[in-house]
Write a structure and sequence with these properties.
Helix content of chain A: 25-40%
Shape of chain A: globular
Oligomer: heterodimer
Strand order of the largest sheet of chain A: 6-7-8-3-9-10
Order of helices and strands of chain B: HHHHHHEEEHHHHEHHHH
Distance between the termini of chain B: 16 Å
Strand order of the largest sheet of chain B: 1-4
Radius of gyration of chain B: 19 Å
Order of helices and strands of chain A: HEEEHEEHEHHHEHEHEEHH
Number of strands of chain A: 10
CATH class of the domain at 1-82 and 217-252 in chain A: Alpha Beta
Radius of gyration of chain A: 19 Å
Largest sheet of chain A: 6 strands, mixed
Largest interface: A-B, 34 and 23 residues
Chain lengths: ~250, ~300
């Protein structure tokens, strides 16, 4: 058992978050091993986004603990959690609107490097520049490197958002509905990208597109009204009666 | 790159030669412009680069003005020591007030900076034993000493070059700051604070840094101004003095560093020449503001940069 203990990247223990009377997360226990692509599904209001927001420190849990690589991160401020290696791409695209694609990614890459001289000219940091270009290529934005982020299409902004998250070289990548609002072609591109990324990173994916989830996920956790109601491989989940009732709608 | 170098050299040559060719009144105006240009740049670091809309920078202007005046007046300290004292005090105030204000975002930040400003103004009016209140205090400007050499600030030509060198040094330092990784992070915070935090930047610390740097250079401007007028009064905390950098920055172009200087160059002569014979001169500035906001919302320099980038 010890080996599996070691390889758990993130674990939540009895995690509860309530807003006044509304319990958004109710004793959620999650254990996600390194390298897994875990999808979290559930109907609207199930607490999926709340879960990600709690993990990243944007919300403080009402009770319960979160462990990242065996260390407690409950209650740490968001930037501390980010520095430890958790990156988030939000449901609503969050980029630096008036900066170029290059600058957007540069800011994330810079996070990884300590500069001894704070007054150095940013252009002198060649290592960072190389990394930025590498990430742009990987994500498929290399032709738009000098474009201003707010001029990009929604699909490209989504890619940029993921690129910013990646630029910090996280150990755990959280993706909140990355396929929402994309065209069929963009969907294919982004889901292929997620597939590719899952080879090297642990990913938690929230997504409503069930086909994509079934194709991408190693394991699926189903949330309903803040509770985990099922967890298993895509096949197990698709055969689970309770899940069918809650999520897909009960058949009479 | 080459063009830019030529431009820099040209500007330097003009500024240098103006020192001994300008008529007295215009030289005097230029000295004011140099001093206020530092104030304007300091504001740009805070608002233009970090997006913190302060309405109370006069606090630091006044604190530094007295920070220089009081040591000279009471203990007759030399220029460099009193200037250092003024700046250290300003930084301390910057850290304390920044610590309270910077956590607040948006309108709350604006309001708390107004409150600071009014508080300091009223205290300065009230504590006559310290500040001289509304009448203020005058002092004899200390000599500028470099080892055995010394120059007198009572010579306007000396004052011209003295203030010009402070402006150039401030420009170089701030230019360097905004071109450094720190500057980029400040811009990122202006653009999307939440995103900056989510990729691991301690937003509070960077905002505080911008606030303190801005306080420091506002203070430099205030200290130099009291040195030039050999005087300070509660009016150096007047909230009208907090509005000025906002106007300079918006007219010239926020987030451009040179823009706010252009703002000073455009607006201060208006006050200087028209304000003397027409008491409603502020309406011209109002009209100018409206004109710029409608036709060139990024400010004059901001608009220029946009055009150059597009062509």
């Amino acid at each position: 058992m010890k080996d599996s203990e070691k390889s758990i990247i993130i674990e939540t223990h009895e995690l509860t978050k309530s807003f006044g009377g509304l319990v958004a997360l109710n004793n959620v226990n999650l254990r996600i091993p390194k390298g897994e692509l875990r999808a979290i599904i559930g109907p609207n209001g199930a607490g999926k986004s709340t879960l990600l927001n709690t993990i990243t420190g944007r919300l403080t849990p009402t009770s319960g603990e979160i462990y990242f690589l065996g260390e407690k991160i409950t209650g740490l401020p968001p930037h501390e959690i980010a520095r430890r290696g958790i990156a988030l791409s939000l449901q609503i695209v969050q980029v630096f609107p008036n900066l170029s694609v290059f600058d957007n990614i540069w800011l994330g890459v810079k996070m990884r490097f300590k500069t001894r001289n704070p007054f150095i000219h940013w252009r002198q940091l060649k290592v960072i520049e190389e990394k930025v270009i590498e990430i742009c290529k990987k994500i498929g934005l290399e032709n738009k490197i000098d474009e201003i982020a707010s001029n990009l299409s929604h699909g490209d902004q989504r890619l940029l958002d993921i690129a910013i998250a990646l630029s910090t070289n996280p150990k755990l990548l959280l993706l909140d509905e990355p396929l929402a609002g994309l065209s069929v072609k963009e969907r294919r591109h982004v889901s292929n990208l997620i597939k590719e990324l899952s080879q090297e990173k642990t990913i938690i994916l929230i997504e409503h597109d069930i086909d994509a989830v079934m194709r991408l996920a190693d394991r699926i956790t189903v949330l309903d009204r803040g509770r985990v109601i099922a967890e298993g491989t895509p096949r197990e989940i698709s055969e689970d009666r309770q899940v069918q009732e809650v999520y897909i709608g009960s058949r009479e | 790159m080459k063009n830019r170098l030529i431009l820099y050299v040209l500007v330097l040559v003009i500024l240098f030669s103006l020192g001994f060719t300008l008529p007295t009144d215009m030289r005097s105006l230029s000295i004011d412009i140099f001093i206020f240009a530092i104030y304007a740049m300091a504001y740009d670091i805070l608002y233009g680069y970090t997006g913190q809309f302060s309405y109370g920078q006069a606090v630091f202007f006044g604190v530094a003005a007295y920070g220089l005046l009081l040591p000279v007046l009471h203990t007759n300290t030399n220029l460099w020591v009193s200037l250092t004292i003024a700046l250290v005090i300003t930084v301390v105030f910057g850290i304390v007030l920044g610590f309270l204000a910077v956590r607040l975002g948006g309108a709350y930040f604006v309001i708390i900076t107004i409150i600071f400003n009014l508080t300091f103004y009223l205290i300065a009016l009230d504590w006559i034993w310290l500040t001289g209140g509304d009448d203020g205090l005058t002092f004899r400007a200390p000599k500028i000493e470099f080892g055995v050499f010394s120059l007198s600030l009572y010579d306007p030509v000396v004052t011209y070059y003295f203030m010009l060198s402070f402006l150039l040094a401030s420009y170089l330092i701030l230019k360097r700051l905004i071109s450094s990784p720190i500057g980029k992070v400040l811009i990122a915070i202006r653009e999307n604070e939440e995103r900056a935090q989510l990729i691991g930047y301690n937003v509070f610390r960077y905002k505080l840094l911008a606030y303190v740097v801005s306080a420091l250079f506002t203070g430099l401007s205030g200290a130099l101004y009291s040195l030039r007028t050999r005087y300070a009064s509660a009016d150096y905390f007047n909230i009208a003095l907090s509005v000025q950098p906002i106007i300079w920055t918006l007219v010239g172009g926020a987030g451009t560093l040179t823009g706010p200087i252009v703002g000073v160059i455009l607006i201060n002569p208006l006050i200087y020449y028209i304000g003397v014979w027409w008491k409603h001169y502020l309406s011209i500035i109002g009209a100018l503001m409206i004109f710029v906001v409608i036709y060139s919302p990024k400010g004059i320099v901001g608009n220029l940069i946009n055009k150059i980038e597009k062509s």
